[in-house]
Amino acid sequence: MPSSHFFTPGSNHRNPRLPYWLQSSSGKDNPTHLESHAMKKTLAIAGTAVVAVTLLTGFGFGRHHRGTPDPERINQMVTWKLDDKLDDLNATEAQRTSIHAVKDRLLSEGQSLMEGQQAARAEAVTQLESATPDATKLHALVDARIDAARAFAHKAVDAVLEVHRTLTPAQRQELASDIREHTGAK
């Protein structure tokens, strides 16, 4: 395919990867550009609001038709998957012990995160049932959940680094190849 068919910044070609409503017409000199910019800003604000409601109510955050997931079932599934991967990597018993300790610690912290989510959800519902919900409390709930999720994400990164130090260079390479294959990353 000729290179002229691909989107290049500054060209009049539209980016085929963006939905039409996020693409501006022909540039900043176009009068509809301001309307397009305002629409993008509105969509970003709306998206943020949807995320906030999702965090507060718990929709999509580990829930399914049966309600809150069972921590023991999650532990069992993660352990099975981890053991399969450790078998593929020919992990030693010492590596398995170390990596399982990391998994147990992370799952425990994840359970605490979910418990905090359930408490925040209950408070959000209480506020929304009120004739005059307290916006300050709702915003504080969102901020607290985001802070808790950020702290957990940092702990997860630290756990990945700990596992990285536990594996041999050959095992790390094999794991990276598996991840690339699974995720389509190059």
In brief, what are we looking at here?
With 186 residues, the chain is mostly helical. The chain has five helices and no strands.
Describe this protein with a few key phrases.
186 residues, mainly alpha, Four Helix Bundle (Hemerythrin (Met), subunit A), 2 domains, 5 helices, 0% strand, elongated, disordered N terminus, transmembrane helix, membrane, Periplasmic heavy metal sensor, transmembrane, LTXXQ
Average the pLDDT over all residues and give the rounded result.
77
| Beta content | under 5%
Biggest beta sheet attributes? none
Q: What radius of gyration results from the CA coordinates?
A: 23 Å
CA distance, first residue to last residue:
21 Å
Strand/helix succession: HHHHH
Low-confidence stretches: 1-12, 59-65
| Helical percentage | 55-70%
CATH top level of the largest domain? Answer: Mainly Alpha
What is the SS-derived class? mainly alpha
Mass-distribution shape:
elongated
CATH topology of the largest domain: Four Helix Bundle (Hemerythrin (Met), subunit A)
Organism: Corallococcus caeni
Protein name: Periplasmic heavy metal sensor
Keywords: Membrane, Transmembrane, Transmembrane helix
Transmembrane segments: 43-62
